[in-house]
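Let's practice the habit of predicting before peeking. Look at the sequence and jot down your guess about where helices and strands might fall. Then scroll down.
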Amino acid sequence: MGSGSGGDGDNEVMHAGDGAAGVLTLAAVPIGRVDDAPARLATELESADIIAAEDTRRLRRLAAELEVPLGGRVVSYYDVIETKRATELVAELQAGRNVLVVTDAGMPGISDPGYRLVAAAAAAGIRVTAVPGPSAVTTALAVSGLPTDRFCFEGFPPRKPGERARRFAELADDTRTQVFFESPRRLASTLQELTDSHGADRAAVVCRELTKVHEEIRRGTLAELASWADPRNPAHPPGAPGSGGVRGEITLVVAGLDRAVAKAAARDAARAARRAARHVARHGDPAAEIVPGQPAPG
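Done guessing? Here is the structure:
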């Protein structure tokens, strides 16, 4: 998606000590292959005053693979300390230091730390920009073969059974393609629960280890994929107990409710509503005849 640019001032890089606030930059990092790194990533890693990383060890490995020296101070920025660290980083930005945020893979803020810092920086009037690049969400959607014109990203499904069941029930009638992240340990149960909520014949795609050496794109119905993901399936290599059968990073893409089916259901509901309205017009509303303290008629 293209965007226009302003004058030279829009692209000016602010540095500590020049009296202006710093710039917060979110940088996408590879989801698998290091050579997928955006060209700008190396420049940002070398020039940032502070680099906030979800995993500082992974950041240093990435910098070594890119042969880029880290020019600024490296701090950890993961979910447990995200709120506290966001406050600290906004103070650094207000002092004129440029802050770069990277996560383990993909774009910060997409099921990874980043949202709270962006919100706090925006509220403080600090400029926020991004280095676009790899994303498991759009990569999985693009290769799935399912409709891409309208989709929703659901992140990781809720872990509590009741919350999961309610969320899947809400999504069952959604016509948009649905994209989830999921742990390989929970993939089989999630696919079975989606089979129960969405129907056994709903099309879906499991994307495993996207862009990596062992990348696998498996298409089928939810019922077929649930059977394939079952840890007891001999197709999976033996592993440690509780490995879940399927291994690696998982992105799941599920087809939305067929739009023709959704339209037919809406038509049926509209007809039922009209019949009910006609019945009320002819015979009155039985509920209106109920006298408080007396039982409703038969």
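How did you do? Strands lie at 23-27, 50-53, 73-76, 99-102, 127-131, 151-155, 177-182, 203-208, 216-221, 250-254.
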